[in-house]
Amino acid sequence: xxxxxxxxxxxxxxxxxxxxxxxxxxxxxxxxxxCRAGIAHVVLERNVRFHAxxxxxxxxxxxxxxxxxxxxxxxxxxxxxxxxxxxxDQIVDYVEAFADSFDAPLREGVTVTRVGRAGSGHFEVDTxxxxxxxxxVIVASGGYDRPxxxxxxxxxxxxxxxxxxxxxxxxxxxxxxxxxVVGTGQSxxxxxxxxxxxxxxxxxxxxxxxxxxxxxxxxxxxxxLFEMGYYDRTIEEQPDPKATEAKTNHYLSGRDGGHEIDxxxxxxxxxxxxxxxxxxxGTTIRFAPDLEKNLxxxxxxxxxxxxxxxxxxxxxxxxxxxxxxxxxxxxxxEEITEIDARDHGITxxxxxxxxxxxxxxxxxxxxDATGRPVHRRGVCDxxxxxxxxxxxxxxxxxxxFLSVGEDAAFVTDRIIQRLADPEKLxxxx
Length: 429
Known about the structure:
Elements (H helix, E strand, L loop, with lengths): L13 E8 L3 H13 L3 E5 L5 H5 L15 E2 L2 E2 L11 H13 L5 E3 L3 E6 L5 E5 L2 E10 L6 E2 L13 E4 L13 E5 L3 H12 L4 E4 L9 E2 L2 E2 H7 L13 H6 L16 H6 L4 E2 L2 E5 L2 E4 L3 H25 L22 E3 L5 E6 L3 E2 L28 E3 L16 H17 L1 H6 L2
Parallel strand pairs: 1-2, 1-8, 2-5, 8-21, 10-19, 11-12, 11-19, 12-15
Antiparallel strand pairs: 3-4, 6-7, 7-8, 9-20, 13-14, 16-17, 17-18
Helix pairs in contact: 1-9
């Protein structure tokens, strides 16, 4: 990788008012607003635009929120199925059409290796294709750089294959035999279902993820929540913002028109369930005795959403069909805390426990002690630094098609104001 002269004079660099890092929906939304305002900038993308949508989603991937929530700037969902759930290729077509709707100054195949302060007060953005400087930097690289696997995964017998969500595209990627899927966020439950539909043998380690209704009282639950203003509530309005930021997404599916995922029903129909994985050694896999608690907590979340909708319907005198009473169709007879993978026919483990961002290249004081960005609606205290595309950056929809465009508009509007009167706004940052 080239090493650039970071002490070179500013005149030796390409200086622009704004550098955007990342060309997913967040970075391209920022570019849309900057282009419309006539602000010179560049979007640097280490792969190709929308790389994750194109190359890091499994074949049967689909949205879990309805198509009408796709609201990229100037480009709402254009199709004829607003209540459906776009498949992977349709999502790619949607984001590509959005990008084609304007002329973004995009540089693909450019990896940012360092962002730091220059002596002049500007930011230096060092890459494998040259050195930029900028007055403002928007980090829109997302939070999916590093797949999470626990340290004890290294102690599992090497004869048992280990894959991560990012490695899975189709059931054929998983070796013959039983696959233990670990994690019950949106990815975990959908990949478990994908394998079962293909006739594969699966077990599931159930974590603390919440679940949601799909169709409830005649409408998709997300339609009700949107109408109720639930998605407009900001992170500051949450009872515990830190806990909200860390919370796993509710699990449900958009597959085949959308449906709920009740793990108790899967267990009733033969899916082996365990609690959270706590350790591995050789062919031994250990679990916490928390299966029933995790199922109960998921149901509590599910029922909480139903109660919110019931209250809204009652308070507003809405004519809506009555709901079927909730009942638990299965519960564990015992908590299994240890198994021998060999005895259970487990030949693979599919880790679905999330990702972490990698900000090792970011040498600017804008991260907390845990490495999380410190900001208010994407605007950092460090003048000129911004983040976009993170979950709960401002609202529930910040990391999604629903609200990323609104967040991009807010951040770019702040940049436009600061470029117009930088010294005044630096003092009042």
